Amino acid sequence: MNPRWSALAGRMLRASGLDRWPVRVRRGIAAGARWSLYPYSSYWRGYHEPDTQAALAALGGGRIEGWCCWDLGAHFGLYSVGLARRVGSRGEVAAFEPNPENFARLELHRRRNRLTWLKSFNVAVSDRTGSAALLGTGLFASTTSHLAYEGEVAAPAGQRKVETVRADDLVGAGTLRPPQFVKIDVEGHAHRALLGMQATLSAHRPILIIGCHSPQEAEGMLAVLDPLGYRWREIGANDAAGNPPLRSGGDYWFEPA
């Protein structure tokens, strides 16, 4: 579709409320879940990040009942909802999404699927508790809103103040169970998120899937995970060799040795 027509159609759907029209996820990690029509129809059509979805489906040999899973950078909650349906009511899933527009859609999907064991947090996971500027939130349902990169400056109109938390603090307070699995896709901030969960990583050694977005993020990720004995491979890569160099745009499976 012509981009101008596509943008117009999107505005009309949002104005009419039809963007939230209920649909079912056709395939993938959240197959059968109740979803919403627009935007990102690839979520409910089942075509979003197929390699990552396959990796998630393979967790625990396909049996993760009772697990605790964390989803950092949950967006609309595709992986959060899919994991929650798989861990069942004896398990727990924590979804973190700082962008308020995205969080509202995540909450809609949580409620539609009656997933009371899916805990949603409108915060960013970082290496400190407090607040930070979220950049790029002006675009509806953005998948690329992010905490500032090192040295990045944005005009006040292009940012929004959001809360930040340390995951270790949530575990220490009993708010969350320690995880068996953590997915992190936070647009360049993964190393900061890992620093804020170092105690949990050391004590409980969960499996991780992390999206890499910058050389600084990659360097910081390995500075935390390599000393803990984690080994990694790139998801979907033709060469399945272990511990490859981390590249921007890659998704990586980390597992303790």
Helix content: 25-40%
Instruction: Tell me the distance between the termini.
Output: 47 Å
Mean pLDDT: 92
Give the helix tally. 9
Total E-strand runs: 13
Q: Main beta sheet, described?
A: 7 strands, mixed
Element layout with pairings:
Layout: H1 3-16, E1 22-24, E2 34-36, H2 41-45, H3 50-57, E3 68-72, H4 78-87, E4 92-96, H5 100-112, E5 118-121, E6 124-125, E7 130-135, E8 146-147, E9 159-165, H6 167-172, E10 181-184, H7 190-195, H8 198-204, E11 207-211, H9 215-225, E12 230-234, E13 251-256
Kindly describe this structure.
- The protein is an alpha/beta fold and 257 residues long.
- Helix content is 31%, strand content 22%.
- The protein has a seven-stranded mixed sheet with strand order 5-4-3-10-11-13-12, covered by helices on one side. The chain has a four-stranded mixed sheet with strand order 6-9-7-8.
- It is globular.
- The mean pLDDT is 92.
